[in-house]
């Protein structure tokens, strides 16, 4: 038996075990993409008055739309190409995009929470003006980039070895490629920020 055939069989066998995960990811992609697209459509085309307290909503929606789409595409690609990942650029690009947009989305929720707190609990005190809100978005993007750049450094294609049907099979997987300890990887993330 040819080793390439064995690797393809190993990959096919792995895909068959993950069919429920693939279906779930496709459902999440459809719901997330549709939901976020509807929010953007309503915000830009149906709202007559765009109040200042909704300034962050389209930005959050775009981050969520990109994060959800990239994440499901990455996972589905990873399921289908478990031991024969197609491209290092796809691997690194999707991991970086997921890290960037997920981190930005989480930080955006913190800023939205802070804005709501200031409007409700401190209505006569410090508020987020238009300039401060724009600065907050740039700070969020900067912080998210500082957390995400190390992801692009430590991910890539890596040889994986396993046994399938009595054969030792080597494939290529998208994963952490740094030949360092987890403590060092954590230090990379801390130093980048």
UniProtKB/TrEMBL annotation:
<keyword id="KW-0675">Receptor</keyword>
<protein>
    <recommendedName>
        <fullName>G-protein coupled receptors family 1 profile domain-containing protein</fullName>
    </recommendedName>
</protein>
<dbReference type="Pfam" id="PF00001">
    <property type="entry name" value="7tm_1"/>
</dbReference>
<dbReference type="GO" id="GO:0005886">
    <property type="term" value="C:plasma membrane"/>
</dbReference>
<feature type="transmembrane region" description="Helical">
    <location>
        <begin position="22"/>
        <end position="43"/>
    </location>
</feature>
<feature type="transmembrane region" description="Helical">
    <location>
        <begin position="55"/>
        <end position="76"/>
    </location>
</feature>
<keyword id="KW-0297">G-protein coupled receptor</keyword>
<dbReference type="InterPro" id="IPR000276">
    <property type="entry name" value="GPCR_Rhodpsn"/>
</dbReference>
<keyword id="KW-0812">Transmembrane</keyword>
<dbReference type="InterPro" id="IPR017452">
    <property type="entry name" value="GPCR_Rhodpsn_7TM"/>
</dbReference>
<feature type="domain" description="G-protein coupled receptors family 1 profile">
    <location>
        <begin position="35"/>
        <end position="193"/>
    </location>
</feature>
<keyword id="KW-1133">Transmembrane helix</keyword>
<feature type="transmembrane region" description="Helical">
    <location>
        <begin position="135"/>
        <end position="157"/>
    </location>
</feature>
<keyword id="KW-0472">Membrane</keyword>
<keyword id="KW-0807">Transducer</keyword>
<feature type="transmembrane region" description="Helical">
    <location>
        <begin position="96"/>
        <end position="114"/>
    </location>
</feature>
<dbReference type="GO" id="GO:0004930">
    <property type="term" value="F:G protein-coupled receptor activity"/>
</dbReference>
């Amino acid at each position: 038996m040819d080793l390439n055939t064995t690797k393809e069989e190993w990959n096919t066998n792995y895909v068959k075990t993950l069919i429920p995960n693939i279906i779930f990811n496709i459902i999440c992609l459809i719901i997330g993409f549709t939901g976020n697209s509807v929010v953007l459509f309503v915000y830009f085309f149906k709202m007559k008055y765009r109040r200042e307290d909704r300034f962050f909503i389209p930005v959050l929606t775009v981050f969520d739309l990109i994060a959800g789409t990239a994440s499901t595409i990455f996972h589905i690609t990873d399921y289908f190409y478990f031991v024969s990942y197609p491209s290092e650029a796809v691997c690194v690009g999707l991991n970086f995009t997921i890290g960037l947009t997920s981190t930005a989305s989480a930080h955006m929720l913190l800023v939205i929470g802070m804005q709501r707190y200031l409007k409700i609990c401190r209505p006569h005190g410090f508020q987020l003006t238009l300039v401060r809100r724009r600065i907050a978005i740039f700070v969020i993007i900067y912080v998210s980039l500082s957390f995400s750049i190390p992801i692009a450094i430590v991910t890539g294609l890596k040889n994986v070895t396993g046994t399938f049907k009595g054969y030792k099979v080597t494939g290529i997987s998208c994963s952490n490629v740094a030949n360092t300890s987890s403590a060092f990887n954590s230090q990379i993330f801390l130093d980048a920020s």
